[in-house]
Write a structure and sequence with these properties.
The chain has 497 residues and is of the alpha/beta class. 30% of the residues lie in helices and 18% in strands. The chain folds into two domains: 298 residues, 3-Layer(bba) Sandwich (FAD/NAD(P)-binding domain); 160 residues, FAD/NAD(P)-binding domain (3-Layer(bba) Sandwich), CATH 3.50.50.60. Strands 1, 2, 3, 4, 5, 6, 17 and 18 form an eight-stranded mixed beta sheet that branches. A five-stranded parallel beta sheet has the order 7-16-8-9-12, with helices on one face. Strands 13-14-15 form a three-stranded antiparallel beta sheet, with no helix packed on it. The structure holds NADP nicotinamide-adenine-dinucleotide phosphate (NAP). The site of NADP nicotinamide-adenine-dinucleotide phosphate has 26 residues, from helix 4. NADP nicotinamide-adenine-dinucleotide phosphate binds next to helix 4.
């Protein structure tokens, strides 16, 4: 089937793309998702306690405010509902192709089309928007012995709701943003919880509160009040970036975190284990009021010895200590710097995006890749944020997508891709901006790829990224004239190539 635009992924990125395309009059598009519902990471991560650590008024589309948020920081179910609601609110359901996993997307230069092989059939599209998301592929740790484990193992992003944890001896591996949310929820029901910690996290208090009926009514009656709230949150969150860009500023926040740790954990040995020894912000700062208190309960052990292997009936740490468990929960994060979807995308001359991004991911404005015509990658390299909502970044990228599509239409050109020079200069700019930031202070984090380059974080204010992407720079793009296709009238050709 031939379509104009193919979108991979029906999470925040893919749905945002669909809505924006629709609004801009590019209505011949389809959104492919391997799942049986929309929602992306908010569909997949259903672990107990799953919630967002960015305020809801900001962690939502600017063009689709939700006056009904129940809390200032929402839980997974409510965010998922919000995304499902957007599908009907903007009438994009007919454009969804769920249970359609994209196996390959290959550029055909002669026809100037992307050929997509999906589990639901073959498609061809002029433009490909990859919105598969950086947090969609769970990363499983490279620890030997899982095959022989006789109990139950699952990743936090694939929670086994059919596996009752009541009375069980549970191992949790990992202490990141997911684990701090589910550990306090499972601790009261399990018999024994053994938490395997590699690096202690900086944790800040979570300041969520219910949104009152009065506030909700005000947001409904006078939408401007919600816009003002959002603007206030936007500015507040932007101010928080100062601490990441100038690490010395974070010392005050670190003191708040350590004071909280002292108050919540009175056992000096446990406190010692939980005290971070790296600059705050170098790894993602976690927010929770109940994570540290949960670790003080008598049924919890925090183990800091490295995990050596998995035995049939437990976890073995360095030195040979055996920790008997019947369930292992992996809170070990995602393939962020090596997203598997890129192996499925082949650009000009059959070049694999994985190869183009080895050893390190590079993209013009985090969105377009030289050698991959008419491809847009949402939340691509260096578009992540530690301080505010990535939805802001998605929307900025969508602005670039639409500007490029309009440019193609106006010039009559068939394809657009960034020049190698524009891509290099953007990458150099990002690398320069990273210098001196907290992410470069020497901790090992999932923001860094195998070469040690930070390919995840945008090293600046969200405002800076948005302003840059707002300025459309035709000179940065290489256009190719449109080819005529059999059975189609000859199209006007672009003269600028
Ligand atoms: P994560 O932050 O990547 O944390 C993974 C944890 O697993 C880390 O503690 C890591 O230790 C540990 N780990 C990894 N491999 C290990 C191994 N072989 N042995 C022992 N420990 C190992 O993953 P996550 O908690 O799932 O969160 C991922 C991201 O999802 C977050 O950073 C955030 O962007 C997003 N998230 C957001 C929210 C939210 O509220 N908005 C909630 C959940 C998740 P090291 O620290 O030593 O590497």
């Amino acid at each position: 089937m031939e379509i104009d635009i193919a979108v991979i992924g029906a999470g925040f990125g893919g749905l945002g793309a669909a809505i924006r395309l629709q609004q801009a009059g590019f209505t011949d598009y389809l959104v492919f998702d391997r799942g049986d519902d929309v929602g992306g990471t908010w569909r997949d991560n259903s672990y107990p306690g799953c919630a967002c650590d960015v305020p809801s008024h900001l962690y939502s589309f600017s063009f689709a405010p939700n006056p009904g948020w129940s809390h200032t920081f929402s839980g997974q179910a409510e965010i998922w509902d919000y995304l499902r609601g957007c599908v009907d609110r903007f009438g994009i359901r007919p454009r969804l192709r769920l249970r359609h996993e994209v196996a390959t997307a290959t550029w055909d230069d002669k026809r100037q089309r992307w050929r997509l092989r999906t589990s639901g059939g073959e498609y061809s599209a002029r433009v490909l928007i990859c919105a598969a998301g950086p947090l969609s592929e769970p990363a499983e740790p490279d620890i030997p012995g899982f095959d022989a484990f006789t109990g139950t193992v699952f990743h936090s992003a694939r929670w086994r709701h059919d596996h009752d944890l009541t009375g069980r001896r549970v191992a949790v591996i990992g202490t990141g943003a997911s684990a701090v949310q589910f550990v306090p929820r499972i601790q009261p029901v399990v018999r024994r919880l053994t938490l395997f910690q590699r690096t202690p996290a900086w944790v800040m208090p979570r300041r969520s509160r219910p949104v009152s009926r009065l506030e909700q009514a005000a947001y409904r009656a006078v939408p401007g009040t919600q816009r003002v709230t959002r603007a206030g949150l936007y500015l507040l969150r932007e101010a928080m970036a100062v601490g990441f860009l100038h690490p010395a500023v974070n010392r005050a926040a670190a003191r708040v975190s350590l004071r909280t740790l002292r108050r919540q954990v009175t056992d000096p040995r446990l406190r010692e284990k939980l005290t971070p020894r790296y600059a705050m912000g170098c790894k993602r700062v976690l927010i929770s009021n109940d994570y540290w208190p949960a670790l003080t309960r008598p049924n919890v052990d925090v183990v800091t010895a490295p995990v050596e292997r998995i035995a049939p009936d437990g976890v073995v740490t360095a030195g040979g200590t055996h920790h008997p468990v019947d369930t292992i929960i992996l809170g070990t994060g995602f393939h962020v710097t090596d997203p598997p979807v890129v192996s499925r995308i082949r650009g000009r001359d059959g070049r694999n995006l994985r190869a183009a991004w080895t050893p390190s991911m590079r993209a013009y404005r985090g969105t377009m890749v030289s050698g991959f015509p008419n491809l847009f990658f949402l939340l691509g390299p260096n578009t992540g944020l530690g301080h505010t909502s990535v939805v802001l970044m998605i929307e900025a990228q969508l602005r670039l997508v639409l500007a490029t599509l309009r440019h193609l239409r106006d010039t009559g050109a068939g394809t657009a891709e960034p020049t190698a020079e524009a891509q290099r200069s953007w990458t150099e700019h990002v690398d320069r901006k990273l210098t001196g930031t907290v992410w470069q202070t020497g901790c090992a984090s999932w923001y860094l790829d195998a070469t040690g380059r930070n390919t995840t974080i945008w090293p600046g204010y969200a405002t800076g990224f948005r302003l840059r992407l707002r300025r459309f720079r035709p000179a940065d793009l290489r256009l190719a004239p449109a080819v005529s296709r059999p059975g189609e009238p000859e199209r006007e050709r672009a003269d600028a190539v």
